[in-house]
Amino acid sequence: MPVSDPKLPPGRMGAMVLQQIGQPLVWQERALPRPGVGQILVRVEACAVCRTDLHVVDGELPGGRLPIVPGHEIVGRIEAMGPGVSGHRLGGRVGIPWLGRTCGTCPYCHEGRENLCDSPEFTGFTRDGGFATHVLADAAYAFAMDGFADPVAAAPLICAGLIGWRALKLAGAGQRIGLYGFGAAAHLAAQVLRWQGRKTHAFTRPGDAAAQALARQLGAVWVGGSDEAPPAPLDAAIIFAPVGALVPAALRVLRKGGCVICGGIHMSDIPAFPYDILWHERQVVSVANLTRADAVEFLSLAPRIGITAEITTYPLRRANEALEDLRRGRFQGAAVLVP
Questions:
Q1: What is the pLDDT of residue 10?
Q2: How far is CA 108 from CA 8, 23, 67, 105, in A?
Q3: Helix, strand or coil for residue 339?
Q4: Given this model, what pLDDT does residue 293 score?
Q5: According to the model, what pLDDT value does residue 212 have?
Q6: CATH number, domain at 333?
Q7: Are 47 and 313 a contacting pair, CB within 8 Å?
Q8: Is residue 34 assigned to a domain?
Q9: What's the pLDDT score for residue 299?
Q10: In this structure, are strands 99-101 and 121-122 parallel, antiparallel, or unpaired?
Q11: Eight-class DSSP state of 123
Q12: What range does the record give for the signal peptide (predicted)?
């Protein structure tokens, strides 16, 4: 564990702030905010670094806010609660995800599909996130995590784990599942697949020996480059890498009636491909955000599954280094900032 950042004066907090798209984050000290109605103030214990944070920093997502504190895989302790908060206690450990708030009134919210809400707020994108010592959150969108003893180990579950879980649900009940891009989300999803008794086929960058070794360690029955074909057609393929060219590659190794699930929030353009690799009722679908029900379901299962994240830790003020290491693929699994 690296040495954490120096303590701040009472009543103050620190944050790594994105002031301009494409520029490094800068350290700022601020007054501690007071939680409003239905809000909690959380002292951040750990915040994992997600590829979505790179998309935010690079300006690849429309609708964000500047300046902004990135980070949405947050685990911490409640230090203060605003009026009207229920279901939480001071000192309780909580997880704060990407979906920070929904309107509750649009057709999607009424249909139980709040992940598609017409007027959402997103942690670390439209409201300040967890690359900080403290963060404000809506209590209704924070999940009790008192059963998780290690906040650093738990942080990647809050997005990489949740998105992987939702993607696996969309993949259906097939036995042969391909995972393209063996990073934070895939290495957690592989552990779920092993627990479910299904067969993981891991596709990495061609020649990425470290990622392939991790995939084998986590029970993959077949490991190869994204330019290779598995020994038998897949029932479903989940693409975590933000590379559009992987969509036709995955379709080509998919059985009839199978599904390709795009697990990222952003992807490079998908190149043209012949209709015959989509025919026979193959499907291409995307995963958008998550619902609170997804989180409750997955976080109740994760301890039973015994998921263990491969983690590289960084002090909070080295957030720029963590982002660049993620961009360059310099670590396996997930990066976690520790304030």
A1: 86
A2: 42, 35, 29, 8
A3: coil
A4: 95
A5: 97
A6: 3.90.180.10
A7: no
A8: yes
A9: 96
A10: antiparallel
A11: B
A12: none
Phi and psi at 6, nearest 5°, equal -60, 155
Whether residues 224 and 265 fall in one domain? yes
**Helix 292-305 × helix 184-196 angle, to 10°:** 70
Alpha-carbon span 166 to 291, nearest angstrom: 9
> What is the structure's pLDDT at 3?
41
Would you say 99 and 40 are in contact if contact means Cβ atoms under 8 Å apart?
no
State the pLDDT at residue 1: 39
| pLDDT at 49 (0 to 100) | 98
Residues 138 and 179 occupy one common structural domain: no
Residues 74 and 178 in one domain: no
Do 136 and 195 fall into the same domain?
A: no
Residues 196 and 131 in one domain: no
Which residues of the chain are modeled with pLDDT < 70? 1-6
Q: Please choose, from the candidates 205, 258, 206, the residue with its C-alpha nearest in 3D space to the C-alpha of residue 233.
A: 258
Q: Look at the chain and report how many structural domains it folds into.
A: 2
Domain that holds residue 323: 12-157+309-338
**For the domain that residue 201 is a member of, what is the CATH number?**
3.40.50.720
Residue 165 confidence (pLDDT) = 97
Residues belonging to the chain: 339
Distance CA 245, CA 269 (A): 8
> Token pair of 257, please?
């009636």
Q: What is the pLDDT of residue 6?
A: 58
Q: What is the pLDDT of residue 260?
A: 98
Residue with tokens 């596709």: 203
292 is a domain residue:
no
pLDDT of residue 9: 80
